[in-house]
Amino acid sequence: MKKHYVGSEIGQLRSVMLHRPNLSLKRLTPSNCQELLFDDVLSVERAGEEHDVFSNLLRQQGVEVLLLGDLLTETLDITEAREWLLNTQISDYRLGPSFARDVRAWLAERSFRELANYLTGGLTYGEIPEVIKSISVETHDANDFIMKPLPNHLFTRDTSCWIYNGTSINPMAKQARRRETNNIRAIYRWHPAFADGAFIKYFGNEEINYDHATLEGGDVLVLGRGTVLIGMSERTTPQGVEFLVDSLFKHQQATRVIAVELPKHRSCMHLDTVMTHIDIDTFSVYPEVVRSDVQCWTLTPDGHGGIKRVSEKGLVYAIEQALGLDQVKLITTGGDAFEAEREQWNDANNVLTIRPGVVVGYERNTWTNEKYDKAGITVLPIPGDELGRGRGGARCMSCPLERDGI
Ligand SMILES: NC(=[NH2+])NCCC[C@H](N)C(=O)O
């Protein structure tokens, strides 16, 4: 059986889950893209090609690449999983009992691949056969969505995140991304690659209303040596952090969590948009946000089943203490203030480390890439003119399933 274990941010990467988007991007228009958390519409073909460059590069580097679309298709082959997903994504409460039943019955007859495409790419009224009648059909246009597309599945980093011997299946902050979690729950529950896996589900596996306890994987950095760094951002709340940390400690998977407060705005929606770990003692940071005066806390088990919280002098100091390093090196976003702001927006800091000192990043961020180069960090460049419009780079677009520790 395959072992799912993520021991760090920078140890040899062995297996990742990616999502090659297609139908969901075809449905992205100027009128709906903002609501779906994209800043523009994309050339679907070009985005697919860029994504292929990314996945091929990872394969060439010896990393196993699993595609979410394939995993979901294979999961749908299992009757129980298919029924659960249909009942969850096309619920009676979403469509009304009779219409929901008819739509589910029609979807259940599609091929598994087609159904997986609808579950990620969305379904319109125009796509269901005319015989399915309801007041809902009569009050909607052919291009209205029965089920909205999930273009942000592209960012597999966020919906679940693996931390040491387990995973958190994340309650997402934004409405546009909430249904992604159900697709991932089904994969981890039923797909043969995971179903009998001996891994812990730290948080988010139940179908309940998590209310304000939201958490997204872009905010979670597995620093290694028992430490996890979590950003409290636009998406990840202190409530979400408390649930995850409590579970990490109860399962004895982490001995220390550093929680850092981030501004609540889109340009730094997740910690990994402003900070990533790229070599044992080296981090990439956007200094406008990761400043020396950011508020941060170290959380440790209090010995009685609770959490002890200590306010830290600074983030860098807290990391040095946790990792036992004399001095952490920071590589800041390149260029002057204008260039740095532009490159951070285009995910210059959001690189995916494949092994210590070797990262994948967008080729367009020339100023920052030059700084990485000068610091002895190897950048394997990928095109991202289209993919980048969703506001995510190589780290956001990958969910490590297996990675060595440090
Ligand atoms: N880990 C990340 N930084 N993910 C970026 C996600 C971008 C996505 N459009 C969103 O708004 O949710």
TrEMBL record:
GO (cellular component) term, any one: cytoplasm
Keyword Hydrolase: yes
EC number, as in UniProt: 3.5.3.6
Pathway of action: Amino-acid degradation; L-arginine degradation via ADI pathway; carbamoyl phosphate from L-arginine: step 1/2
Major subcellular location class: cytoplasm
Gene Ontology process terms (BP): L-arginine deiminase pathway
Enzymatic reactions: L-arginine + H2O = L-citrulline + NH4(+)
Coiled coil stretches, renumbered: none
Location(s), subcellular: Cytoplasm
Gene Ontology MF terms in the entry: arginine deiminase activity
Active site as annotated: 396
Keyword terms of this UniProt record: Arginine metabolism, Cytoplasm, Hydrolase
Domain of life: Bacteria
NCBIfam families membership: arcA, PRK01388.1
Similarity annotation: Belongs to the arginine deiminase family.
Protein's name according to its UniProt entry: Arginine deiminase
Organism: Izhakiella australiensis
Lineage: Bacteria, Pseudomonadati, Pseudomonadota, Gammaproteobacteria, Enterobacterales
Protein's gene: arcA
